[in-house]
Amino acid sequence: MLKRLLGMSLCCGLVLAVACAPAEEQAAEQAMEEAPAAMQMQLPDTTAAAVWSYLQQEDYRANWGMWPGKGKLYTGRDPHGALLTTYANAAALGALTGKAGSMPAGAIIVKENFMPDSSLAALTVMYKVDGYDPANNNWFWAKLGPAGGVQVEGRGQGCIACHAAQRANDFVFTSSLSQ
Ligand code: HEC
Q1: Which pLDDT does position 24 carry in this prediction?
Q2: 84, 108, 159, best to mutate for ligand 1 pocket (most atoms within 8 Å of CB)
Q3: Element (H, E) at 74
Q4: Confidence (pLDDT) at 81
Q5: Sign of the C-alpha dihedral computed for residues 128, 98, 170 and 173 taken in this order
Q6: How far is Cα of residue 85 from the mean position of the Cα atoms in its chain?
């Protein structure tokens, strides 16, 4: 009797295991497919260190677009350097090409600032974060050295003071967001 019961439960276990396997495999596969997308969507905290590691993870030079109408090493003005290359993530590019009037939360602009000899001097970053600084259109500002050393981060007063001249254009200088 005991033997039979054991045999039955073993058998049931086997049947269950076999029946369950495909569902489990499917779930595992799905989780693996979803993981990279979920990781990409995880936007950084409002610290320059988090933004820096996010930029490395995103490999922005390879995966983001350059500012519409601007190529590599275009001529910049004071204070950003002689030569500039500016990248924008999908959210920022969408607002630029769609003439949205302003950038949405999650928009990130990375401007590489070069010396006249084309060596990289610094990265200046604008990152729009919902509710971060409502008085100044919720931009998080950062200035980083070529290897990620933090020079400015947060509600950068120097950055804001100058970029506020473009308040009507969401603090953006390089092109109009509405026309
Ligand atoms: C004295 C004025 C001034 C200050 C200060 C300044 N910027 Fe800018 N910024 C500009 C101008 C002008 C441009 C347009 C690019 C160019 O022609 O150099 C620009 C462009 C940018 C861009 C590209 C998007 C855009 O607005 O066109 C980013 C990103 C940026 N600045 C970040 C910063 C950060 C971060 C700081 C502070 C660490 C900062 N800026 C300080 C004047 C300034």
Answers
A1: 54
A2: 159
A3: strand 74-75
A4: 86
A5: positive
A6: 17
Q: Tokens representing 140? A: 């998080």
DSSP string, 105-147: TT-EEEEEEE-TTS-EEEEEEEEE-TTS-GGGTTEEEEEE-TT
- Burial (CB < 10 A; 0-12, 13-18, 19+), residue 102, is middle
Closest CA to 86 of 60, 53, 118: 60
Q: Which pLDDT does position 16 carry in this prediction?
A: 44
To test the pocket of ligand 1, the residue of 137, 163, 169 to mutate (highest count of ligand atoms within 8 Å of its CB) is: 163
Residues of the chain below pLDDT 50: 1-2, 5-21, 28, 31-32, 35, 37-39
Give, for 85, the enclosing helix (H) or strand (E): strand 83-88
| pLDDT for 152 | 98
Closest residue CA from atom 22 of ligand 1: 111
